[in-house]
Design goal:
alpha+beta; 20 helices; globular
């Protein structure tokens, strides 16, 4: 069950109060958790970034509506205790503070998501509101969100149509919520102008974090039935080369991924990399990869393309393993407003008809770095720590260390050693590898083993990695630097709302006629 209220998320303070409601109601409902578990039932309450408050129950069908009635009553009529409010106020403040110190690649995506949502609030805005929220404010907000809302109910499992109608009547009678207008509580995505490339920089608040991160986002319109099918196939084709080239070959970092992102009325091809290397250098390597992949795609053998295409089709048509997966798929299509429950099957059929020429045209228009019609936004997350010239183990240091190993009569595969040395790995990873390996050699005394390990850091100081021209990266000509995200969002247009594939008003009329008959 999902509640979409126009006031739930309309300000940073309101969004913060929804977090209080989630915690306080969950805390109050714990009195039911033991009895519910004995009866084979479970429940959860959660609040999402889209402003939706969700109540989920699971377990045996025959007692589900009884549990739902208790949960709704407790939720709607909950009276907030000051001592519980004070406790959760401290916990919520700490949780938001900790969110500022999450891994750089997560923060890069958070900032990207914040920029592209028409309504959304970052951790700094939420923290500013903490001192101004009182228990009375939260109590009033709880009453307000149930006064008018869009309520969506999904029942899956051994339920009949009669059970579903009973659940609807139960929710309506317990909550007394009036419906909102179709134009209220809808989400949209901010639209990037075609032919423009933007970049925003953020600095990490955690001084101990040494990694940077880049989220590289290419926005693509959903202007035809095949648009999403083309994006899914492109993401499938790009996924393996992204990992093998940017992570394995170029060793930009341990976290390297590419993915498709379907949003409200638009979609995107995105890349996310966490690395100790400068963010501009990482972005340059993504651009170089995309330029090279254009040639890969253009010259791809027909048999290889058809094999990749069929592999994706097979994956989309895989049967669901359990009821949870089925429920999640239904819920996602209800909450996004499309009610397109067979989209995966339709996309599979559309992908089967796509040709290599279709994909080359799609790529050249929306992804190719040389395209004049693509829309790009990059989010660069910077570490506070300055890059050190001796944080990596240079090729020169590796050569000297190899002689030390030979002198100590440590068996080494020199060909493999030379290959690994070319990547100039971090000193910490070199120390970690040799600590483990040398520990397996009974011929080495503990003193000799420690001397070799100490030698690694000594050689890193004596033979630092030589700066390579362009290793700091170069800002692409024409890139627009975004200093103020809020001001930038005000200059952007919003996407159209999602369009349902079914006529809900007609469905309601038919249901009314059927019930009367």
């Amino acid at each position: 069950m999902a509640f979409g209220s126009p006031v739930a998320n309309c300000s940073a303070k309101n969004a913060l109060m929804m977090r209080f409601i989630e915690c306080l109601i969950t805390d109050a409902l714990t009195e039911y958790s033991y009895d519910a578990s004995l009866a084979g039932l479970d429940y959860s309450l959660s609040f999402g970034e889209d402003g939706i408050l969700s109540l989920q129950t699971s377990g045996y069908t025959d007692k589900m509506l009884v549990l739902l009635q208790h949960l709704l009553d407790k939720t709607k009529n909950h009276v907030i205790r000051q001592d519980r409010f004070d406790l959760y106020k401290e916990e919520i403040a700490q949780a938001i503070e900790n969110a500022k110190k999450r891994e750089p690649h997560i923060l890069a995506h958070d900032w990207m998501d914040h920029c592209l949502r028409d309504v959304g609030w970052n951790v700094f805005q939420l923290l500013e509101e903490i001192p101004h929220v009182t228990s009375q404010h939260v109590q009033e907000h709880l009453a307000e969100i149930f006064r008018r809302a869009r309520v969506s109910i999904l029942l899956t499992g051994n339920f009949t149509e009669e059970d579903a109608l009973k659940a609807q009547d139960l929710v309506e009678s317990q909550l007394g919520t009036r419906p909102i207008l179709p134009t209220e509580a809808i989400s949209r995505t901010m639209l990037l102008p075609r032919g423009k490339e933007y970049l925003h920089n953020e600095t990490l608040t955690n001084p101990k974090e040494t990694n940077n991160a880049v989220e590289y986002y290419l926005q693509i319109p959903q202007d035809s039935e095949t648009s999403q099918a083309k994006l899914l196939l492109l993401a499938h084709l790009v996924n393996e080369p992204t990992f093998s080239i940017l992570r394995t070959r170029e060793q930009l970092g341990y976290i390297v991924s590419s993915y498709s992102w379907v949003q409200i009325s638009v979609m995107a091809m995105a890349f996310r990399i966490q690395s100790e290397k400068p963010t501009l250098y990482v972005e340059n390597r993504i651009e170089a990869f995309l330029k090279d992949f254009k040639q890969t795609l253009t010259t791809m053998e027909r048999t290889e393309f058809e094999s990749q295409r069929q592999g994706l089709v097979n994956r989309l048509l895989e049967k669901l393993d359990n009821l949870d997966q089925e429920s999640s798929r239904f819920v996602s299509k209800i909450l996004d407003g499309t009610y397109d429950f067979t989209l995966r099957e339709k996309n599979a059929r559309r992908i089967e008809k796509l040709t290599l020429e279709d994909m080359v045209e799609f790529y050249n228009t929306y992804v190719d770095p040389e395209s004049t019609s693509r829309a790009k936004l990059s989010m660069h997350i910077h570490s506070q720590s300055k890059p050190s010239t001796n944080s990596n183990f240079s090729v020169a240091a590796s050569k000297v260390f190899l002689e030390d190993l030979k002198e100590a009569q440590v068996p080494v595969d020199e060909a493999q050693y030379a290959t690994l040395s070319k990547a100039e790995p971090s000193v910490d990873s070199v120390v970690g590898f040799w600590t483990k390996y040398l520990g397996t050699l009974a011929t080495l005394t503990p003193e000799r083993r420690q001397k070799l390990l100490d030698r690694i850091k000594e050689l890193a100081e004596l033979h630092p990695v030589k700066p390579v021209e362009g290793s700091s990266g170069v800002l692409k000509e024409g890139t627009i630097i975004v200093d103020d995200l809020q001001a930038f969002k005000k200059t952007l247009q919003m996407s159209r709302p999602t369009v349902s594939v079914i006529d809900l008003d007609e469905e309601a009329r038919q249901a009314t006629v059927s019930s009367r008959l």
